[in-house]
Design goal:
alpha+beta
Amino acid sequence: MTTPRFLQIHTLSPYTGALLNRDDSGLAKRLPYGGALRTRVSSQCLKRHWRMAADPHALREINGVVESFRSRELVTRTVIGELQQEFSKDVLDALEPEFQKAVYGDKGTTKSNRQTLLFGEPELRWLKDQARGLAVGAAGDADAAKKAAAAWRKEFKSAIKAMRDQTALPGGLTAALFGRMVTSDTEANITAPLHVAHAFTVHEEEPESDYFTAVDDLSVDEPGADTIQETELTSGLFYGYVVVDIPGLLANLRHDADLAGRVLHNLVYLIAEVSPGAKLGSTAPYGRASFMLLESGDRQPRSLAEAYRSPCVPHVEPAVGALVAYLQRLDDAYATGETRRTMCLFAADVPDAEHASLADLAVWAQSLPEAFAP
């Protein structure tokens, strides 16, 4: 067995009469592929639903997890805002601009100019302690607080880097898994070990323009619809593809193989079970993967999307057949020797794959980081 440098996760997930991910005009996102237009769900949409899922296998349910928060108001709400009961408004108002510029860059004093940043609880707790220390030192003098904060900001990047170097998961689990980019402080950037492709339908798009009305319950003089609107709905069988760089994940988790395993365990469940759906009240867009293939190996990952360059019949069985046929051709040509586990609601003979339940797949994924344990 090869050392499992990469875990690849392939899925086929069906959705009916939904609007999973909209573009700026309110229509379903699309992707031209193989000469046919497909319905698409962006990787950003998928990752947010997995990150925010309220689920028994949610990432935040993992013991010892460190939370993260993404916002343009990290300083306003979690640093300065939480000190309002301790110090005067004048002192905090003097501190805030320097903290905004430290975190968000020189233009950070204006909310519209701030990048939406992801910070972990340890980083936010450190920032709050720094602000508290400056406020205590100012002894109620706003001018002194302003001067102290300006001097503090000059040393900010080196000071917070030292804190990050000495702290497990300074950016929280979200940053360790999904990565982070901070344009105002490149030292804070974290490379994402989770690589997520945009999901797309294995067949040509199947859209429907849904005309709907609302009736005024209290109107007696004007019968008929009070509101007339139109929206787009789509149906489809989506191919999804995710890669986990296991050494990269371990590096971000300070080489905690046990934690990395628990993250992979829950991630398998989230990918299979959590729907990337909007319009919950009117479409109930809840679905689960009908097919899931996990592969571990030490060679560069490769998507199986090419199996669907020619649009497939929009049913699970022929879609699995197309994937299996393409996978067999890859095996014959490259012989990269991945170890495989698969789950399918229909009979499927996947090359060199052991068939299992979702629970078994999650447990197997959890075991992969153990190969890197010291």
